[in-house]
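Entry:
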Amino acid sequence: MSNINHLGGFTVFRIQSKITPSFWESILLTLSIISIMAICIIKFDTVPHMPILLAILLLITYGLIKKVPYKQLEDGLVDGSKAGLGAIFIFFFIGILISSWMIGGTIPTLIYLGFQFISPHFFYAIVFIITCIIGLSIGSSLTTVATVGVAFIGMAGAMDISLAITAGAIVSGAFFGDKMSPLSDTTNLASAIVRVDLFDHIKNMGWTTIPAFVISLIGYGMLSPNKDSQHLEQISSFQEGLLQTGMIHWYTLLPLALLIVLSIKKVPAILSLALTSIAGIVVSYFHQYLTAGEILNILFTGYSSQTGIEVVDSLLSRGGMNSMMFTIGLVLLALSMGGLLFTLGIVQSLLLKVESSLKTVGSVISAAAFTAIGVNTLIGEQYLSILLTGEAFQAPFQKVGLANKNLARVMEDAGTVVNPLVPWSVCGIFITNVLAVSTLDYLPFAFFCLLSPILTILFGVTGKTLTYIKE
């Protein structure tokens, strides 16, 4: 049996276990799965689909050895995959959004304006700040990555600047917004699970978020290249190519303005993406005419630029519903594996063991953080990481006298922002697909995402910035 809860447009699942494995069996299986995925992805450079399939086969074999009926194992796979349906529909619409903003000129205009105002000096720091602002404005990390993130990657490519560091700055800024925006699903979810006022939760996150932001900004400023004059000719050529498309106009930014307004009005994600995609299509008629059939094909297969300038065509030829299929297939596989982990009681066994050994403030906070990181690593699902950590640790936090808003902060510091660092996670897969930079390449440079869990554990161990129930 499963209990399916709809939260923030995504579905978070809890599946009843059919057996109760020992803690050491659970540990062994967990380490085996992580090893399979790490070896296949890092050593053999394979796509994550295959190691996840191997992990699923391993779990099925274990279930059959434990005499769990195959039908129940199959039900676990299906129940797990159901948890991704909300995300899948959003991915479809993001693919459509990118292609519609390409033909509408929104993304090309953003790139052109970026070249007007941004130089390589402090480039990574500027990328980080702007994605922070956009992320805060719309409350969606993935939409931020898919829009202004794509524009910044294009600029970095044209200026011959590191794509890995640029992607790290984009991811850091986008997930700063996802974590701190009152419009964010994860922020609302974390505060709701532990029954903390939303703005109290955001204010309390400032203790770890502001230091992580400042350190990240300094890091990106120091890494930014000093090659302002070297690539002026190349940048000028790139801008000229963008102008040749005939899509660079002030009115092409209207879909972006509409997206921000809809986000502030808290319009559901799918409706916001659909309306702004339509806006992009409407805007396209001001500078080019496409038949209904051509538009429908572009929305499915993506926009294909034909300026004759290779770097411009390479950047602008992207988007479409079909471009999301790689991501969607991987999301379904990862969540199906998660369904099996619950069906076989592996996740429950690990959480029970962790909960029973908590006695101090530092151990409670560290265990909650490592649980959120572990769920992200094992299952690759951001919302499930937040939900499980929140449900499992409310009693231990109360036992050591910690107020619930401390737990809400840990859930975001080690749950929300860690997901894009896992190659087989929902966010990691999506970002790699959209930015064309692998998770392992940008991971060392996603400073904000790396610092947040470290700071939350550090403050937990030292007892700094914590709120106690008696207060």
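The radius of gyration is 22 Å.
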